[in-house]
Design a protein that fits this description.
Strand 1 and strand 2 form a beta hairpin. The chain starts with a helix and ends with a helix. It is an all-alpha fold. It has 3 domains: about 120 residues; about 130 residues; about 55 residues, no CATH class. Helix 6 runs antiparallel to helix 13 and helix 8 packs antiparallel against helix 12. About 10% of the residues have low confidence.
Length: about 350
């Protein structure tokens, strides 16, 4: 029991990352193999270790408790966030195995997937500005490479059968008929998140250069939140998250890509990619709570105004939408913002 406690204390807070590194290293060993039995074995191994990572994440927190350092932090909030990432990874793995188990580069795709999951977890538990920025930048590079790999496979496969498609004469016709995926849409898709990374870097640089603090906890404890440079850095960070999540009016490249990408890319862009943006927004929790406590009435009016804008935008989107699915989603968002507005009226 004492040895187990020592091991747990040494890997705290990297329980899930250490667990997922085992199938990652094994997959790297078989990286050039194209045998179907090995692909199936690695997929099942990854599935088992994802479930094991969920268990070890919860158990490790019960044994080791909270953790805090200059670079990382670990609490019940992070346990819940990591569990959400791992459950999302289970869904993505299912799509990848069903749709790409016959691909020659399936193991390489699996390696990129595991690395992306580990970096997403690292974004969540990081608290130092530099560590958060580096983790997010590497995560975006991995997700870009993963999505590009999934779609490039389809480009190669479909290009072999282009001559067999009746009535298809050129690239534009093939693209419209769903027989080809264009890399231009992948590049345009990731221009938004890389712009957001630049905004994050500018925000962290402004905050660090004006206070010499490396995380938001130190800023709140020093009672420096209301400094102009701090508020400016927080505003730029919030704008970066807004751009990162492809919210209006930055949704064009996202919608164009989703109409043309292959099926498993949906799961990555739905289940994994947005989590990193949400985790970046949670870095501002302490700042938001500080402002809300100091200026309770003003903060309440601001949040109610923002919810009202979102409510009106959702209704307008529902009225203009021709798709039943988008119509239902917009109405659901409208009801959600209305409930939040009623809740915030008591703030």
């Amino acid at each position: 029991m004492v040895r187990l406690m020592n091991i747990v204390s040494r890997v705290n807070p990297f329980y899930s990352i250490v667990t997922l590194s085992i199938p990652l290293l094994i997959s790297m060993f078989f990286g050039i193999s194209s045998r179907r039995a090995i692909k199936t074995f690695l997929a099942w191994l990854t599935l088992i270790f994802l479930f094991l990572a969920i268990f070890i994440n919860v158990y490790g927190f019960r044994v080791g408790g909270n953790f805090s350092s200059q670079l990382f932090s670990f609490s019940i909030f992070h346990v819940v966030g990591i569990s959400i990432v791992l459950f999302s990874a289970l869904n993505i793995l299912l799509f990848l195995y069903i749709l790409h188990r016959e691909d020659e580069h399936f193991i390489k795709i699996l390696i990129l997937f595991l690395l992306s999951v580990c970096l997403c977890i690292l974004v969540l538990i990081s608290r130092n500005f530099l560590m958060v920025f580096v983790s997010l930048a590497v995560f975006l590079v991995l997700v870009f490479q993963l999505v590009a790999s999934l779609n490039i496979v389809d480009i190669v496969d479909n290009s072999r059968d282009n001559r067999k498609v009746a009535g298809v004469k050129d690239t534009k016709d093939r693209e419209k008929s769903g027989q080809m995926y264009d890399n231009r849409y992948i590049i345009r898709l990731f221009l938004n998140p890389f712009l957001a990374v630049i905004l994050f870097f500018f925000s962290f640089s402004m905050i660090y250069s004006s206070t010499d603090f490396k995380n938001f906890t130190q800023i709140v404890e020093a009672d420096l939140v209301l400094l102009p440079f701090i508020l400016g850095g927080v505003a730029i960070l919030a704008i970066g998250v807004y751009v990162y999540l492809f919210l209006i009016p930055f949704q064009g490249s996202y919608l164009k890509f989703m109409r043309r990408c292959e099926s498993s890319s949906f799961s990555i862009m739905y289940f994994l990619y947005p989590l990193a943006g949400i985790f970046m927004l949670t870095k501002l929790n302490e700042v938001i709570y500080y402002i809300a406590e100091r200026y309770r009435s003003i903060a309440g009016y601001i949040f109610v105004f923002l919810c009202f804008i979102c409510f009106v935008s959702s209704n307008l989107g529902a009225l203009k939408s021709k798709s039943l699915r988008r119509f239902c989603c917009c109405l659901l968002l409208a009801f959600f913002y209305l409930i939040m507005q009623c809740f915030l009226l008591d703030l």
